[in-house]
Amino acid sequence: MTASMPAKSAVLPGEFVNLGDAMLSLAAARRLSRDGGQVTVLPYRRPSEEVRSEFEKEGFEVIAMRDEPLRALRACGSGSIWIGGGHAIRNEISLGWLLFTTVVAGLAKASGRTVRVIGSGATPIASGWRHRLFGRILACCDRICVRDPLSAKALRADFPAVADRVERAGDLAFLDGCVHLPAGHPETSACLVSPGIDVQEGRVEDPSEILKVLRDLFERCGMKHVIVVSHDSRTELGLDFCRSFAAAVQEAMPVTVEVAAQGGIEHGLLQPYGRARWIVTGRLHGLIIGALLRRSVIYTRGSASKLRPFAQLFDYQPAGATDGDPFHAQGDTIAQALARQRVAAETNFSG
Q1: Do residues 147 and 119 make contact, with C-beta atoms less than 8 angstroms apart?
Q2: Per-residue pLDDT tens digits for 54-67
Q3: pTM above 0.85, yes or no
Q4: Are residues 159 and 224 in the same domain?
Q5: Residue 347: how many CB atoms within 10 A of its CB?
Q6: String of b and e for 151-178 (b: at least 16 CB within 10 Å)?
Q7: Does residue 89 sit in the same domain as residue 208?
Q8: Residue 6 pLDDT more than 60?
């Protein structure tokens, strides 16, 4: 009797240049591997060696669509297709990613395999070829799971033909046990700053706003060290801002400052967050990592529309808020919200 072949799953995120998106893809791969079978992750461009090694050491193959298109197509030739994690549905996505995903989603649908959007953020898609290609991809999906109500509203408005398949689930970072947080306690006087810069999305940061928060932490709470983290290595997505902001902090107050070197998910993202007692962020997954670590989080106004739905879950306040005490996290509130979000995240994979 011939043994059945193990199930295969292909995860199609956008990019791995953003460490938050790489973290979500690793969480998705870990979750899918619990059900058995082989998991392949297909970012559009080749990731750094540090990020690639983090996947491969757990047995997950990484194939870049743009660099190895034929190999990537073969990897999607059988098994289920899981699209997303991160802000996958947006105007700024590359034509190459859209064309590849349209083809493999259509082939999977035609052969009766599962195609699904999971834990995705979505913003309105302009009419034209991007809209048509996204429409074809979404038409192949059995379910379209998004991470917040704004994403659900945008998709239902832009793609009414599949509106009944759009549902709100949880962000993949909340999958139970799928993001490996650093052990140990934070440094008692350290604050992490992760600016949310995205020129294409029109998101910018006000350095004076963040400096005011840091000055309050210095004067009221004894903050002595600042860790500046860029989730993305691209200049237009914050790396230059991080470097210049670090210099501004050193000029403004007598604290030590470091800019975290880019690395993999563990060393370039999770470990720096684990060191911090306070987090000031314009990054959605900076806020979520802070919640997972039960830290105090203040979010910046430049990214408020994107972060607010999640900040409200944990009673986190924006920079400049006068209500309550933003520098001390409410442990019970965070614990209860995390329990609900873990359940919501698991619904991406149910059914």
Answers
A1: yes
A2: 999 999 999 999 99
A3: yes
A4: no
A5: 16
A6: bbebbbebbeebeebbeebbbbbbbeeb
A7: no
A8: no
